[in-house]
Structure formats: structure tokens, C-alpha cells
Amino acid sequence: MNSELSGNLVVIKDKKSIKLHEKSHYGNMSDEGLQITLIEALYLAEKGKLKILKKGKIISIEEMFQKIRKENLFIKYLVYSDLRNRGYIVKTGFKYGSEFRLYERGKSPGDGHSDYLVKVISENYEISATDFSSYVRVAHGVNKKLLFAVVDEENDITYYNVEWTRP
User: Fold this and answer.
1) Known catalytic residue: 21?
2) Does the active-site annotation cover 116?
């Protein structure tokens, strides 16, 4: 499938994109076609399922990695890719102040609500107690579990499930 890079979105106009959206839950449908994020586009390109073009010229996977790094999306891409490879449906979590919403294996956005919010941080990131508390409070308030995805300098990911408990 071919797509067109447009700013920080990639648009797929191919009719097969409807199946990609409905079956695998990538992006959002619009009048233009399927709009996917840079992270989703790179993931699909790496899997050999998508060619990304800009003004008719194919953008290589390395060029997409450069763009991802330039936009400070690299560690988010690592986490997205890892979760997708594990069989999860991953959607954006901006509405909840997190990077992603995560659906358990076998569930999808049409079947109900996501189970987790995923906050992505590097191992060197310093988080204040107030910020940490607010992430937990938001997740608890919307009946979701909070996963911290911590990416170390070797690009290894450790997931921490953080739950609010009443003493």
C-alpha cells in the first residue's frame, strides 16, 4: 500500500486501508482516507506493509527513523512497536495525558474501553511526586490501569503496573 506524508500524519488513500482500520485498528478514517501517525506509519513500513511517499518520492525507513528522532518520538516508537508485536491494540492516549491507550489481546476499540494508559519515559527522566500522583489519579478516575514504560539507554523496555490503592 502507498501513502502520503503530510506534516505529522500519513494518509493512506488505498481502499485496503479500510480493512487496515477496521481489522487492525490503525489510525482514523477521514474524507481523505486513513490518517495514521508517524509512529504507526513507521511500524507498518518496517513490517513491509506500507510505502511512505512525499511528493511522489518514496521515503526510506531510515529517513522515517530520522523524522521520528527529530520529532522526539523514538522511545514512544520503541514502546508502540513492542506492544503491537505482543498482540495489543495501541491507540493514542492524549485525551488522558498519556502516550497510549492499550487494549488487551482479543479486545478492540469497538468492543469497549481500553484497559490501560501507557506513560512512556526514559530511565533518566525525573518525575515529581505531583506528576506521578496525577498520572495515577487520572488512570484511576477513568477506570484504567497505568503502565509506565521505562526505556533505558540500550533501548530495553521495562513495564511497571501502577495502581491506586485505598489503605
Assistant:
1) no
2) no
Domains parsed from the chain with CATH numbers: 2-70 (3.40.1170.20), 74-162 (3.40.1350.10)
Q: Which residue has the cell 497505568?
A: 146
Ordered alpha helix ranges (H), the chain: 16-24, 38-46, 61-70, 74-85, 129-141
Would you mind telling me the total number of residues written for the chain in this entry? 167
Point out the catalytic residue in the list 113, 125, 159, 160: 113
pLDDT of residue 164 exceeding 80, the answer is: no
Active-site residue (options: 43, 77, 96, 103): 103
Condensed to tens digits (0 to 9), the pLDDT of residues 80-113 reads 999 999 999 999 998 898 999 999 877 878 777 8
